[in-house]
Specification:
Structural class: alpha/beta
Number of strands: 8
Distance between the termini: 89 Å
Radius of gyration: 26 Å
Bound molecules: copper (II) ion
Oligomer: single chain
CATH superfamily of the largest domain: Cupredoxins -  blue copper proteins
Number of helices: 1
CATH topology of the largest domain: Immunoglobulin-like
Order of helices and strands: HEEEEEEEE
């Protein structure tokens, strides 16, 4: 083995060691990400705090929700098709919510606030505030 061949081999070993280290680092990052993801799911209540309406199977559930003045209602689309939440009186309107996306609106005054899904107008619900 000549001197220069020996140097090349050393170089290659160093390269392989760096690659192995990078692979370990990448795996560690992935593992940490998975742990973090699990951690968030474990500590966050499935439906969040406050009054909640779930959109599932082309229905708002509950269809009527009663909340105190100042409450923030959160809608979550648990359906596998997009829906939205649009106030009949144009008081609020969500963007189109894909699966698991949320929309929140705070109701500052008493009243009955009807809403529907403009994509599927037969989907209706109401928030009774007061
Ligand atoms: Cu819909």
């Amino acid at each position: 083995m000549t001197n220069s061949e020996n140097e090349r081999n050393v170089d290659r070993r160093g390269f392989l060691q760096r690659m192995a280290w990078m692979g370990t680092a990448a795996l560690w990052t992935l593992a940490t990400g998975v742990v973090k993801g699990t951690h968030i799911e474990d500590t966050t209540p499935a439906l969040g705090d406050g009054p909640h309406v779930v959109v599932d199977n082309f229905k708002f559930a509950p269809a009527t929700i009663a909340v105190p003045i100042g409450a923030t209602v959160t809608w979550t689309n648990r359906d596998d098709v997009p829906h939205n939440v649009v106030s009949t009186d144009k008081k609020f309107a969500s963007p189109v919510l894909d699966t698991d996306e949320k929309f929140s609106y705070t109701f500052p005054a008493a009243g009955t606030f009807k809403y529907y899904c403009s994509i599927h107008p037969r989907m209706t619900g109401q928030v009774v505030v007061g």
